[in-house]
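Deviations from the work plan: none for this task. Representative record:
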Amino acid sequence: MTSQTAHAEPAEAAIADTTAIAVDVDRVSKIFRGETEVRALDDVSVGIRKNEFFTLLGPSGCGKTTLLRLIAGFEPPTMGAIRLGTRDISRLPPNQRPINTVFQNYALFPHMSVAQNIAFGLEMLGKPKAEVQRTVDEMLRLVRMEELKNRRTSEISGGQQQRVALARALAPHPEVLLLDEPLSALDLKLRKDMQIELKRLQHETGITFIFVTHDQEEALTMSDRVAVMSAGKILQVGRPRDIYERPAERFVANFIGESNFLDATLSGGTVELAAGGRFDVRVPEGVRDGAVSVLVRPEHASVRSGEAAEGETGATVENVVYSGEATVVHLRLATGEAMKIRLANAPQGGEAPPQTGGAAAIRIAPGAVTVLKD
Amino acid sequence: MSAQAETPFPPGALEREAETADTRRRWLLSLPAIAIIVCAAAGPLLVMVIYSFLTPGDYGNVKWEFSLEGWMNTIVQRDIFDDTLIWADAHLSIFWRSFSLSLITTILTLIIGVPTAWFVATQPPGRREFWLFLVTVPFWTNLLVRTIAIQELIRSEGVINLVLLKIGIIDEPLQMMFTDFAIGFGMTYVYLPLMVLPVYAAVDKLDFRLVEAAHDLYASRWTAFRRVILPLIKPGIIAGSILVFVPCLGAYVTPRVLGGGKNLMFGNLIELQFGAGRNWPLGAALSLMLMAAVMVALIFYVRITSREKADG
Amino acid sequence: MAETTTPTPTETAAPALTAPRREPRGYSVRSLPGFAVIAIFTFFALYAPILILVTYSFNAGTSLAIWEGFSLRWYYQAAANEAVQDAAIRSLYLAFCAATIATVAATMAALATTRTRRFPGKTMIYALINQPLMIPEIVTAVALLIVFAAIKVWTGHTSMIYLIAAHTAFCVPFAYLPIRARLETMDNTLETAAQDLYASRWLTFRRVTLPLMWPGIVAGLMLAFVISLDDVVITEFVKSAGQETIPTYMLGQLRRVVTPEVNAISTVILMAGVILVALFFRLTSRRR
């Protein structure tokens, strides 16, 4: 119980000094012992800052929900510590943690009205009646549900249930709000609206939000910072833009957006692609000179018909797929590597995209090449 | 990995604490139920084991002297060299009656129970609840009352004889009461719902697309029934058979009312030892025998239902 | 899923088609010839004896065979019979005590044994609770006779406590059944949510678990009540002198000259049973 934090990334630690930490997950492991032992969380450390919209992003089974349940106190960690600020809360039962949860299925009490649901937490905290009443009204206004306060929770729509669940969790004004894939049950249109609504609520209440999702777009649009998880580990923590443009590993790059992985050789601060072309790059820590794998996002390169000129890479067009706002061109490089490039579609009559079977020239934007750790 | 020195507790300690507390809480919650059942159901069964090894008292009850007589008197039946041969015959015929009547009852309930269950399960959802309710009501109504109803029916002056006499099929009332027929008839009536309900559950789960597939592959209705439906609802049929057979084996009220003093079944034989027979150790031994027989059937049942669960 | 078309068996001479015979309309793989007939017969056979019993309870004559007109005579006679009154009150008292205690114990046990990982002893607790269901009643009855007889001799105490204990024991698994079923359909996250919203263990139970499992508890109570009221075997062996319940009283009457009085009592028990079962059905089938 000595040092306060043991964060994996140095950049992380540097910022953590200046910003107050709300939730400090310190080398937490969770092992489920059933017929087989499942390591749901494997030595995870992360610091979530005050007033931050923090997202845990990963495929199902990556441990993100387990981490949420540990923070909420529904399950004890096998190892490690969870702190609220600097206070160790590993031993506190969930009803003594100033943390509330919005459940994936909302978990609204079916035998209570909307208002009674929202009042529940306040009543449990022993708040005076008048204050409960006032806060409930305030919450109803906040989530725009004033007219439905006396309805039963089974009588309102999915989107409305979602808002009640939010109001119920926000009413006691917790230090941290946990959201476990709360938007997954909503249809696309409603989900978009709720994304904006959630952002607004977080802004208005100033509460730290920890949001769990497997939807990368949701994570990128809503979060201040995102942690990408896989197989019980946090692979990378960063701002959405960093995660997208500077993924540390192949998994992160692959999970978020579309990727081209190309072989290259690193020497000094420069990579030379096997298919041709030299680029200045930022070299991640721990990567040595020699053969490396680099990432180029499909929209960070352009392609035209014809032979490659200076600074361009030659390729053959294998397929051209039109998809509304963009056209994706599938190419085969001289090295045999596959690459796809996304071209924004101009109005008809503009420059035609390359034709299948023809020769093409690729131009990769400077700064578009990212060296991956693995 | 480096040491977990920063952890404020040893690895896994919180989980163990939580699990221990949880287990303790669950045991405490179960305690009242356990206490009641141990005191007034399970415990006395163990005491009965002791009693089966004691000597009968002169006016019922027991003398606290060890004896194998109780068990002998049940097993001895097969021993031709023993001088209690006459008793052996009586026991043997009662065992046989219990077994054969239980079997016949099971077969009868099967013959009428399976079509009934099928009928209920294939009703449209709205009406199904109603039919199911009709099956369930007799199941929960008083067993004695239902037995009395059968008695009303088959007595010498009962409705069946009345009708038969009136039509002129018979000249004098048939003696149906106090026969094995009466017991079998009564038990079939009383335990029929126990067959219908599990078979219903099996048919209800049946995927009718499989039956359609059989028809599609040129099976007639009966072939489809025999080759597709029957194998699929077999677990329900076996469950129902055991659920009927077991209480028949231990039946007491129905044979007592409908069978009278002569046509005893296992349960009545046990009672006899605690009444006129005044042989408690024998009664205890017989009880334990019955219990063992029932247990064998139930273990069979559990194995079948657990296999069914594993399949589905 | 289930079709809405009426299942009319079109077993009439189907035209000899060559390929797979898909009969045009009303063809249903759900109908099997003869099954409906047997089923209807079964329902007739299930209810006819009961209806005859009920009918004769309204017979004006002493005979159990010849109908002499409608009368409530046997009901009045049964109601005026002190032995019947006594037994009825005892039956109700016994059922009330046994069902109540059994339901409380079963509720606690159901909470302990459902919605959980395997904990040490779970199988044993489960087996114990269901034990009374698995042993033939006559065996339990005899075992109780042995033990309670010894206790009665030893203490000289012969109150209703023995009957209440015996009834409570075999009522526990029946009360347990619907409560457990209810708990298993309940959403676990509701209680997690309550704890998340600062409710202690007790408050979570009182404010969330109990209201949600309430229909199951009421159903269990009713079931236990009916089971206790109906019991004859165990009661017959455990009761002390002068502790007749309605079923043992009736069983005793059957040995003598039977009058329609027994039919009248049976009818009343039947009606009470049907009403309770109907209520039970409503409680357990309505999902909320």
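Residues 60 and 71 of chain C are 5 Å apart (CA to CA).
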